[in-house]
Task: inverse folding
């Protein structure tokens, strides 16, 4: 837990991409909401996007679950800044573990 | 239906990789049984593997479903030869649509 300003939440747990099985990576990306989150993050500077800032049609508990899956797949890193939880895509680390996979899902067609 | 020797089954329906959304491709590969099927097919000459020849811990109806998902994702082509339904991995076509994705799942770690 960070010492101040994070309210009552526990700090988010992360998995490094090096520890992510390929099945976990594929399953994390094989979801339209999570793919939208990843794509929006890819288009934003690191640590600028709070969890509530994404244009996805799900409620807060579902969104929280999706971010948990993305953290567990080594795709997203989060930290608390005051009342906001901000995000970055772990692009370089994920690319090193699964070369080309992010590029593929980022460049692919409009969400199909 | 092919005219002779195929029993009562309808010929399998296929989807060309060019018509496969990226989410469908990812979801098809994000399953341990299907990933095993794809890996075994990648290691076998085309049209040599009958559906019953794979080392996966599922019954026939589930296996049939998995092959249906793989056909629908443009990953596998099937044809009936007498009582056998034989398979090939659509490697070139799938690679053209999703460059690097098959290579990634084929080279990745032992099934995790």
Result:
């Amino acid at each position: 837990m960070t010492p101040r300003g994070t309210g009552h939440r526990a700090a988010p747990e992360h998995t490094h991409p090096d520890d992510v099985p390929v099945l976990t990576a594929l399953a994390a990306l094989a979801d339209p909401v999570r793919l939208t989150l990843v794509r929006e993050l890819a288009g934003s500077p690191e640590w600028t996007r709070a969890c509530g800032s994404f244009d996805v049609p799900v409620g807060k508990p579902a969104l929280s679950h999706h971010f948990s899956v993305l953290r567990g797949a080594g795709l997203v890193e989060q930290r608390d800044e005051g009342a906001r939880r901000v995000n970055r895509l772990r692009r370089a680390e994920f690319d090193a573990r699964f070369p080309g996979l992010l590029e593929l899902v980022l460049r692919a067609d409009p969400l199909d």
About this structure: The helical segments of chain B are 22-29, 32-42, 60-72, 91-97, 101-107. Residues 60-72 of chain B form the longest helix (13 residues). The beta strands of chain B are 49-50, 76-81, 84-89. The CA atoms of residues 42 and 89 of chain B lie 6 Å apart.
